[in-house]
Amino acid sequence: MARRDRPRVLLLTSSPLDGADGCDVRLASNVLEALPDFDFVWFTQWPEGRQASPRRGRPVRILSRDGVPHIPQRIQAALAGAVFARRVDLVHAFLTVGRTFPVFSRLRPLLLGGRPVVHTVPGVMDSRFLTRTRPLGTTVALSESMARRLRAADFGDVRVIPPMIDLDAWPYLPRPRGYPVVLFAGHHDPRGGAEAAIDAAAEAWREGARFRLVLAMRGRPGQHPTLLNEALRERAGAAGLPDVEVKGYVEDMRALIATIHVLLFPPTMLGGKADIPLTVLQSLASGRPAVLSDLPQFADFGHAVLRAPTGDARRTGQQLAWLLDQPRSWDVLAERGRSLIEDHFGPERFAARYAALYRELLS
């Protein structure tokens, strides 16, 4: 039973918390677990969830076969949110600014009533959507770069609270032995980085580096992952990469990251992916150096990662080859990455900032 003296908060997501493990769901789950002084209402997959269900709060059922936010699930979430927004003290939305978000934002008074709203923005699919969007309330960005974009789009009160990593769940690991493995993890999005990773890996191979490239690809609703994965294999073969594995959705990312030497993530735009990709944080927490593109969002990582000019496959490949050939530099970057996660993405800072924001709005 919920304690009556605790403020009640609706976690508004477009899919169930125990459904597909997207960034919005992960952020909402982290808030639920990190703030024990609040009672939460959250969406659960029915008839059963893909992930373990949270043990706290009040679950509200959403009919979903796979836990993915298809249009019927989004409609259910919006309608359930409209009902329960009147029964809580605060609404906390975790919604990417995508194609349908401008309409949702304009219906905010009808759907969410007069309760205070926190809107954590995992990412922005296209900057053009910002011009047609109204802020839901106090907005939270994951990075300083995204905060500047949102303020420029007249979002008003924008705070910055980086995502968190459970440091116990993602311990620092020693460098793997054996043949090097390089990982790209992402979606089949245009300019999302998969093709750029293949091109950069081919450049590193021509530089003399020897490694296995693993692409862990997640499909989106309406895509055909089998065909898209085969296209990536064909591109790798045409580029001259002899050792490439293209995976689908990976259930146990912790086990996969433990086997890799380097994370290669060179998108030219993030699109629907999180502004601070969780895979990058997980890799750095585990002591796995990363080679990233030079997107503004990644400036927050400072000298804990290597960055190459966006779209420059040759330079990215050279950095990858150099890192694989320099074990001492690898060790330095591995330690820097872990230190960065501990200092800026730990659960204590995350919980303290959200708790302070909640209390400010509820007062």
Summed up:
The protein has twelve helices and 13 strands.
Structural description of this entry:
The chain is of the alpha/beta class. It has helices at residues 23-34, 71-84, 101-106, 108-112, 144-152, 194-206, 225-239, 253-259, 278-285, 313-324, 327-344, 347-362; strands at residues 8-12, 39-46, 58-63, 90-94, 117-121, 138-141, 158-160, 181-187, 212-218, 244-247, 262-265, 290-293, 306-308. The two termini are 24 Å apart. The strands form 2 sheets. It has a 7-stranded parallel β-sheet with strand order 3-2-1-4-5-6-7, with helices on both faces. It contains 12 helices and 13 strands. Helices cover 37% and strands 18% of the residues. It has 2 domains: 8-164 and 346-362, Rossmann fold (3-Layer(aba) Sandwich); 181-344, 3-Layer(aba) Sandwich (Rossmann fold), CATH 3.40.50.2000. The model has no long low-confidence stretch (mean pLDDT 93).
Topology at a glance:
Elements: E1 8-12, H1 23-34, E2 39-46, E3 58-63, H2 71-84, E4 90-94, H3 101-106, H4 108-112, E5 117-121, E6 138-141, H5 144-152, E7 158-160, E8 181-187, H6 194-206, E9 212-218, H7 225-239, E10 244-247, H8 253-259, E11 262-265, H9 278-285, E12 290-293, E13 306-308, H10 313-324, H11 327-344, H12 347-362
Parallel strand pairs: 1-2, 1-4, 2-3, 4-5, 5-6, 6-7, 8-9, 8-11, 9-10, 11-12, 12-13
User: Which strand order do you get reading across the main beta sheet?
Assistant: 3-2-1-4-5-6-7
CATH architecture of the largest domain: 3-Layer(aba) Sandwich
Q: Please indicate the percent range of residues in DSSP E strands (runs of 2 or more).
A: 15-25%
CATH fold-level label of the largest domain: Rossmann fold
Query: CATH homologous superfamily name of the largest domain?
Result: Glycogen Phosphorylase B
CATH class descriptor name of the largest domain: Alpha Beta
Q: Give the domain tally.
A: 2
- The secondary structure category is alpha/beta
Question: Main β-sheet: number of strands, strand sense, barrel status?
Answer: 7 strands, parallel
Q: Helicity range of the residues?
A: 25-40%
Shape verdict? globular
Low-confidence stretches: none
The count of β-strands is 13
Q: Strand-and-helix sequence, N→C?
A: EHEEHEHHEEHEEHEHEHEHEEHHH
Look at the structure and give the mean pLDDT: 93
How many helices? The count is 12
- C-alpha Rg (nearest Å): 21 Å
Distance between the termini: 24 Å
